[in-house]
Amino acid sequence: PGKKVLIVYAHQEPKSFNGSLLKIAVEELTKQGCSVTVSDLYTMQFEPRATRNDIVGHLHNPEAFNYGVETWEAYKRGGLSKDLVEEQKKVQEADLLIFQFPLFWFNMPAILKGWMDRVLVQGFAYDLSKVYDGGLLQGKLSLFSFTTGASQEMYSKEGISGDIRYVLWPMQHGIMHFCGVKVLEPHICYAPENVSEEKRKEMLAAWSQRLKTLWKEEPIDCSPEWYFK
Amino acid sequence: PGKKVLIVYAHQEPKSFNGSLLKIAVEELTKQGCSVTVSDLYTMQFEPRATRNDIVGHLHNPEAFNYGVETWEAYKRGGLSKDLVEEQKKVQEADLLIFQFPLFWFNMPAILKGWMDRVLVQGFAYDLSKVYDGGLLQGKLSLFSFTTGASQEMYSKEGISGDIRYVLWPMQHGIMHFCGVKVLEPHICYAPENVSEEKRKEMLAAWSQRLKTLWKEEPIDCSPEWYFK
User: Fold this and answer.
1) 10 Å Cβ neighbour count for B13?
2) Which of A17, A60, A147, A166 is the mutation pick for testing B, counting most B CBs within 10 A?
3) Distance from CA of A213 to the nearest CA of B (A)
4) Closest Cβ–Cβ partner in A106, A157, A228 for B175
5) What is the domain count for chain B?
6) Structural domain of A209
7) Is B137 in contact with B182 (CB distance < 8 Å)?
8) ipTM score
9) Is A222 a residue whose pLDDT tops 90?
10) Which of A62, A189, A202, B123 is 20 to 30 A from B133 in CA distance terms?
11) For the Flavodoxin-like fold domain, which residue ranges apply (chains A, B) (predicted)?
12) Residue (of A50, A149, A111, A192) closest to B174 by Cα position
């Protein structure tokens, strides 16, 4: 109660299974007394491309554009584009970040990757030697909630898609842990398009149920052993 | 000689190190008698977002938009948007796909992820049970060539960033192998921004040198052991 949650949501269709998962999270967390903000990336037509347009005004080095350097400098002088400043404000205020999306090609959809690329700039999310446990977004939690096309059997160590944890490494360790954000167990709905209506309802109920005790969960141990043991 | 190469390039600045790597590849491969095509994603202002705009004309199911289903159906009736058809044509003609980019958050930049999301649709790159070794892009080679921010020591099994091969799994196995494309050893330039000018020149020379005998290389064994052993 009183906790702030930002849900970054990347699906085009409100009637989709991802749309249902979003709706459940908003309802359940609001009922708990949390303050919930949703960044609905497709509806916002969020820009995924990292370009010169992200810097308002002059460039630090107009001779050779370096996105990392330019956004870092722009952040320090308050010169990032308005859409980025708004997303950073939402992140800053949040106790918990939930990412809700369909897995596309073993990874998040480009529109969500663009959110990571553009919002989590140096100076804001990390800085020189302020990375991993020393990252600038310490004190926050994150949770990756997604659907897959392939089944749970395929996403096993012996399955053709490999252990599902392999695809979590770049997202959870490479992004969230890098910024100092703790990571809760991912919430994975396997192949909702290929199961019965009853099974889909069970999946939705399980998400709702998990959210009821979410704040009592301990973060995972974000070490290579968790992912590759 | 006579081979066709498509280079999908994702950097904003021609004067960057990635820009130099691109230039070297175009020059060296052209010199060998290859026909080289470049998709320069930022210059093309390539759209990374997977939306309804990718389908020309009517939708298969306008009641609930499903990107995977709609692009599959659109592909079959020749109803994908022009920019996708053009990229698919380039892929179809290529013997080798080279992806040249800076690693962003343990992954490819969003604009390049968007190329994967939108170009490699069902029906074109894979189909029902035509995946992995049976994928529809069989007979082609691919090569991921990228720069990193972190050093080679950091990207080792004991380093904080973990083995660099962990980040290759979603790209090489999850995308290329899934579509039936064989994968050559990646070409990785570690932290070019943090090394001496001399070292940078050595890195460029090494890329040029490798390209001279590229067509004699054997693809990697794209199994979990290669990535996680």
Assistant:
1) 15
2) A166
3) 31
4) A106
5) 1
6) 4-228
7) no
8) 0.97
9) no
10) A189
11) 3-211
12) A149
